[in-house]
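User: Can you fold this complex?
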Amino acid sequence: MNAPADLAHLTPEIALRDVPEALIAALKARFGANCSTAMAVRTQHGRDESSFDAPPPAAVVFAECTQDVADAVKLASDFSVPVIPFGVGSSLEGHLLAVQGGISIDLQRMNQVLSINADDLTVTVQPGVTRKQLNEEIKSTGLFFPIDPGADASIGGMTATRASGTNAVRYGTMRENVLGLEVVTASGDVIRTGTRAKKSSAGYDLTRLMVGSEGTLGVVTEITLRIYPLPEAVSAAICSFPSIEAAVRTTIQIIQLGVPIARVELIDVNAVRMVNAYAKLGLREEPMLLMEFHGSPAGVKEQAETVQEIASDHGGNAFEWASTPEERTRLWTARHNSYFAAVQSRPGCRVISTDTCVPISRLADCLLESVAETDASGIPYFLVGHVGDGNFHFGYLIDPNIPEERVKAEKLNHDLVSRALSLEGTCTGEHGVGLHKMDFLITEAGAGAVDMMRTIKRALDPKNIMNPGKIFSL
Amino acid sequence: MNAPADLAHLTPEIALRDVPEALIAALKARFGANCSTAMAVRTQHGRDESSFDAPPPAAVVFAECTQDVADAVKLASDFSVPVIPFGVGSSLEGHLLAVQGGISIDLQRMNQVLSINADDLTVTVQPGVTRKQLNEEIKSTGLFFPIDPGADASIGGMTATRASGTNAVRYGTMRENVLGLEVVTASGDVIRTGTRAKKSSAGYDLTRLMVGSEGTLGVVTEITLRIYPLPEAVSAAICSFPSIEAAVRTTIQIIQLGVPIARVELIDVNAVRMVNAYAKLGLREEPMLLMEFHGSPAGVKEQAETVQEIASDHGGNAFEWASTPEERTRLWTARHNSYFAAVQSRPGCRVISTDTCVPISRLADCLLESVAETDASGIPYFLVGHVGDGNFHFGYLIDPNIPEERVKAEKLNHDLVSRALSLEGTCTGEHGVGLHKMDFLITEAGAGAVDMMRTIKRALDPKNIMNPGKIFSL
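Assistant: Here's the predicted assembly.
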């Protein structure tokens, strides 16, 4: 890994390609009012939740159906102009930035739940459906879609980044829960991958190749997902700990004992203070675990008892239980508001978020050393994590007007990633590579594996128009 | 789909490429006695459990380490000669046949369990380790590897075909259980994919691209797998049914109610008769389900009660329970011997095995119509299936000296696949495409998706030396 001084990823490489007037004219002819070149619209589509900036795309096409996407991609291909798919804009690593120029395809109007197969526990949706919308629309069937990355992300965006979040410890990630896709390829053709069968050995796993490809291999226009019966019983609890180490060691033991916990989230004392200030929650200002149990009433009781015993062995106290949806919502407010509470705690700041994930046995080593380093740095931060999966996020709150703070934060991130990789982990558990982790990806996967990715990209997108400049330089 | 008269896949296309003497000499110089050109060795490596024949490979290299594999591939690449990885030879679709000539790389000597990480529930193995060997070696840790395709296949082979089998209904397939790989690429370079972290969003999912690629993109030389705690309680049962429909409808209801059953296998009356004749089991000669439950003692009891009630609603009777390992082994003998019992039931026959998999709600439609068709055809057969996943196998027992029987069996398979695809299923749940299902793959995935696979193959293996002529024509 390069020395921290060579943090090339601090400033994304901007290499704008020409977007000819003839393309804009052709898009306007094809899409009418659904193609916008208004600066406000372009600006809105040229950024995400990352701390990077780039010039906005030259135009935004609002797609209403697969054919719209295919036609927009075909026109872009004719002019060798980049295409960036856009869901709700909640990605975190610069995925949506038009670093090589080009056009944005907004998929928010493709927001239909196309079919619900309750008997098979599958659902097929358009990419603009958000996870909350999906759960609202399937609620009456007694089923739910568990993947919850925090933001009310679009299913298309979650597919593109291989998202996961709080429930992944029990239900898996988008990798495990996408059964099949419809994809518009770089040539503007439409292909289908996968079937509704639960398993298949029919050729290369194009579904999983597309999941997590960050828009660089095609635009996903339809997604078939696994869904789950709403658990018979749900119980949630918060538990405070005398130290972050005690909370982490409790988590490790829960997982190693095989407790099928549905959620186990760490919230550090900084985050607790921030959400107390933001939402007046009156939480005890100590590190805490937020847990949820799903199952039969007897199963949930058994899990809860086991966990309470483990927590108590580590000095956990002040267990607060919530079994009604309203009580649970109150508890989860702390977790879901942590990002916004943090941003408000330092007005004008930007958040640099880390995303390492390590094997559970390495979690304490990875997390505790990084906490000590970050405390010593003086950079304000909060720490939350899907610790049951070995995944956690520091959010460094930097003042964008003080360049040294960014350098300091990036150095902390760099050291954290180095530590995670040395512990057989990954630089990104769920956010994706985008612009920010391209160097880390090479260190993690090796130049040979990244070359293989690049070779696939070149073969499937010879004009390099699909969200170029993300995951690896090209 | 073509008319059944055009069954091009009845006779695999043999298009032998030149294997220069200079390559054989170079292999002998590099590998000494570990490179064999003895006809007996070549013949043994030129076939699998499929009903196809092709000329044997020109030589067999017995690899003892990754470097051996890399060197063999590099030499083959220098001469543009095909390379076919060989595990234990248990594949079913002609995967191992040297239809374009070339050399075989035997991986059976790479049979070390390299590391066991009990705390993280992961294990790293060489490709020649078989699933039974792996379970023997990790038994003392209280952990097990659940994937059981029937044969004592090598982990490398199971990775290459995306295998699954009896436990997949609860534990998933190789797709879900391979965390990372070491792979020798077509150029003889060594890359690594994945990490030991439970999840990652670090670039393209090369792990899942390799899993199920049937040796066409590289040779897998190391596999990191998920393993599981041995369940606290295990209970198995067989239950006979008045009709195959009753057994199928029982299965559907078990799955739709979300019972976390570990195994639910259908054995039709033909298979029961065959195993009775073969192993003198004295089983009631009716269709039966063979089931296994894993969990806490209370959980297993709860599952068993639920299932018994469902079965009884469908006329299931003669429930026979087994809780000790010895009793369970006796019950599972019926399932595991069915293939050999069937072969013995018609001396000299060859088995053409089907492998469709459909969404669980479509299982009755798909299976029952095909049973009626097969009964009417007069071809001897047996039917077994991982019905909890919607996956089942007809084994047509054909006399290889009566060509019409093969045509008849292939027509039955063709009609079954057409039915499964019309019900949103797949032509292969777990065996892979190999030579046998190339036409079906095009119908299932569409020409566009197969073209995408072909484009990836051409990009990663420009000389087309990695197990060429499998999955798709090239």
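DSSP finds 17 helices and 18 strands in chain B. Residues 233-422 of chain B form a domain with the Vanillyl-alcohol Oxidase; Chain A, domain 3 fold (CATH 3.40.462.40).
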